[in-house]
Specification:
By secondary structure, the chain is of the alpha+beta class. The chain folds into three domains: about 1-110, DNA Primase, Chain A (Alpha-Beta Complex), CATH 3.90.580.10; about 120-250, DNA primase, catalytic core, N-terminal domain (DNA primase DNAg catalytic core, N-terminal domain); about 255-355, Dna Topoisomerase Vi A Subunit, Chain: A, domain 2, CATH 3.40.1360.10. It is built from 14 helices and 16 strands. It has a four-stranded antiparallel sheet, covered by helices on one side. The longest helix has 16 residues, at about 315-330. The N and C termini lie far apart (about 50 Å).
């Protein structure tokens, strides 16, 4: 059986037609295809569901190699390799066939994770100043900033477990004045300023840390090395920001270097949502703010992976999802819009509701 499809970019009824052998396409092995699309199989050819709109903690997606089909016992969806691509990529039958026909079958036979590194040493401008990350200064801050009781209680109250807190090395600023004095003593004022840890109002005679006392601080880890710091106030006052980053240092994507081996990645809006995704057994990365876009090197890093976009359930979040989806389409990166349940504002709220049941 063959299928005639208008060539990509051709107007309806005009231009060339592409002819595809449906029997050959349906014979593509479904298990490596599923892995290519982000499924991580356990014993018995089971995997956590990779279909849009289905969030789970127990594998329910089954791959049947003998029949070359798949079926999710949770959301009751599945079928042939064409059905699998239609569901995961949210496309119609013809687009699924065209996508399958373009697959490198040699790569499909032996799927391997693509390892890449992201270069963070790129100068950026902030108020006319260019700063680079200073890993020693950031390490010193984290060494002096263990998570305190109120910070741990806040995160535990959001159902972020101690195990996840430890995995992401979450800390908390102690006395900010004492900490900044220690940093300047060890590194000098000019170096501290160029590392982005000093506030705009800071002066050599009256130094001020960009973070304040009791702020929870999240290190952006590359392995065990902090390449950036972001802090969150537990009780922001009227008009003050809830989140504070380094001054003059470009904000990278949270947790990006640590998902190199993952074939399927959740892209969240914010750090706490990334931690929430890990509580749900989903490798995740986070953008700091709904207006953030991905750089070319970050898109290169994500090439060959399946990206599940999880935006907040508001106008800004929906706009972010559309913008990122367009970026991924332009780079031929597989992306799936992951919709939160109705009445749920963000992924952390979904986690809280799930754990309270």
């Amino acid at each position: 059986m063959t299928l005639k499809v208008a060539a990509a970019g051709a107007a309806c009824g005009q231009g060339k037609q592409e002819i595809y052998d449906l029997e050959k396409i349906k014979a593509l092995p479904i298990i490596p295809l599923g892995e290519q699309l982000g499924a991580v199989l356990t014993k018995g050819a089971m995997a956590l569901c990779i279909f849009p709109g289905h969030i789970e903690r127990t594998p329910s997606l089954h791959f049947e190699s003998r029949k070359n089909t798949c079926f999710c016992f949770g959301c009751r969806r599945g079928g042939s390799v064409i059905d699998l691509v239609k569901i995961v990529r949210d496309c119609d039958f013809k687009d699924a066939v065209r996508w399958l026909a373009d697959i490198d079958q040699a790569q499909l036979a032996k799927p391997k994770p693509i390892r890449r590194t992201v270069e963070y040493q790129t100068p950026v401008k902030h108020d006319g100043v260019e700063y680079l990350p200073d890993l020693e200064v950031y390490a010193s801050i984290m060494k002096c900033s263990p998570l305190q009781t109120d910070g741990r209680l806040y995160l535990n109250g959001r159902f972020i477990t101690d195990q996840t807190i430890k995995k992401f090395s979450v800390g908390q600023i102690p006395n900010a004045d004492h900490l900044v004095a220690s940093l300047i003593h060890n590194f000098g004022y000019p170096r501290c300023e160029k590392s982005g840890v000093l506030a705009a109002s800071s002066t050599p005679s009256c130094p001020r840390l960009v973070f304040r006392s009791q702020h929870i601080v999240f290190p952006f880890l590359n392995g065990e090395v902090a390449t950036y710091l972001q802090a969150r106030s537990l009780s922001p006052s009227m008009g003050s920001p809830k989140y504070i980053g380094l001054r003059g240092v470009r904000r990278p994507v949270f947790n990006l270097p640590n998902v190199a081996k993952s074939r399927a990645i959740w892209l969240c809006e914010g750090i706490v949502d990334v931690l929430s995704a890990y509580e749900l057994n989903k490798p995740a990365i986070g953008l700091l703010g709904a207006s953030t876009t991905l750089r070319p090197d970050e898109l290169d890093f994500l090439s060959g992976k399946t990206i599940y976009i999880v935006g907040d359930n508001d106008r800004a979040g929906r706009t972010m999802v559309k913008r990122l989806r367009n970026q991924f389409v332009s780079r031929r990166i597989i992306s799936v819009i992951q919709t939160l349940p109705p009445g749920t504002n963000d992924l952390n709220e979904h986690l809280v509701k799930t754990r309270r049941k």
